Amino acid sequence: MEKGVAIEKAEGKLGVMLVGLGAVATTVVAGVELVRKGLAKPIGSLTQMSTIRLGKRTDNRFPKIKDFVPLADLDDIVFAAWDIFADSAYDAALAAGVLTTEDIEKIRPELQAIKPMKAVFNDYYVKRLHGTHIKSGKNKMDLAEQLKQDIAAFKKEHHLSRVVVVWCASTEIYQEHDPVYDSVEALEKAMREDHIAIPPSMIYAYAAITSGIPFANGAPNITIDIPAMIELAKRHNVPVCGKDFKSGQTFMKTLIAPGLKAKQIGVSGWFSTNILGNRDGEVLDDPESFKSKEVSKLSVLDTIFQPEHNPDLYSNVYHKVRINYYPPRGDNKESWDNIDIFGWLGYPMQIKVNFLCRDSILAAPIALDLALLLDLAHRAHMKGIQEWLSFFFKSPMTAPGLYPEHDVFIQLMKLKNTLRHLRGEELITHLGLEYYD
């Protein structure tokens, strides 16, 4: 029997529709345009830069991922976006202040050509933003139908073969589980009745999935992480993934925490604080939106440390997360972590981390990789939750009853082994005994 999975070829154009045309989205678009012109390198992109080992170490087979699996070429991507502000990608990129004016000017015509469609938005769910480029409709189902029309028109206008939707918009307020999430029928009824439990992000997800379009959720919003959306994704044979791009401080946690656990070093406390001045920081200044982010960030350590299995080391970890809006810093986020640890005989020690990062510079390649890998998954006829893409998320989605894997090294092994599986290559366990037989 032939190994591997039948994957449709990446023929034709791939439409990447971004929800939100702010700092992250404009950095994605501008970055791809600069790379296409040979003016920059796609640093930080797993699909464009990373290699994958095939077979034994002695085989010396290390192709780039983009040469190993049939991904869409960057030259075949066409971008579109929805936003509550009517600014073109050029004006939005200048306003975001992530990239230099010099870099933005190099691709001015390409960015000016991208004008956002009116967005689905309600300031009940994101209280600190007040745009006017907003759709109106008789109910939330009507708004979803308008989004589906946008998707169909974009695909037709640009003669696209395939489309992917990536949420790059702001964090919505925290929402508890509601019974309307439990079935497709209940969800659709709630949308027709304008139920308060249905935020804009769910309307986008519903529109994409029922259009047969893969959807990635880059924010901590619940969005697709509900039974009804998962059922819809399976019905429509659509891969989905989320939630919350893992880019800065949480990424550092998933690097450091596995190392402490591997060495059986105990942790008594982990205090994390951030300052951030972009639109994301402004939104997170609202306590209800911050709650969504806090839940996403706090979930990481428990599943790495597994205190129930390591009670002497991690049963009493005091974990605190803070985000402070500080306009002068713009997109250049700064985070501080104080980690109180203890070692042999319980003697205390400390680790302090000061990470001066560029939020959107770290998030942009994640959005690109997710678009390309979700498109690959769709062409490989994968559907529902794509846990193998956990590497990119703070709060990865999993099957019901299954805890998420947060260790970044295990996540990367899972991702690469999935690619090996798709192409019929042997999975790598790193056992290594074959070299010593």
What is the general shape?
globular
What share of residues are in beta strands?
15-25%
Top CATH class of the largest domain = Alpha Beta
Q: Tell me the count of domains.
A: 2
Q: What strand order characterises the main sheet?
A: 3-2-1-4-5-6-11
Class computed from helices, strands and strand pairing: alpha/beta
Biggest sheet, open or closed, and with what strands and sense? 7 strands, parallel
How many H/I helices? 16
Q: What brief labels describe this structure?
A:
Dihydrodipicolinate Reductase, domain 2, 11 strands, 16% strand, 437 residues, 38% helix, seven-stranded parallel sheet, Rossmann fold
Describe the SSE topology:
Layout: E1 13-19, H1 23-36, H2 46-49, H3 65-68, E2 77-83, H4 89-96, H5 101-106, H6 108-112, E3 117-118, H7 140-157, E4 160-167, H8 184-192, H9 200-210, E5 215-217, H10 227-235, E6 239-242, H11 249-262, E7 266-276, H12 279-284, H13 287-305, H14 311-314, E8 318-325, E9 334-342, E10 348-356, H15 359-379, E11 384-385, H16 408-422
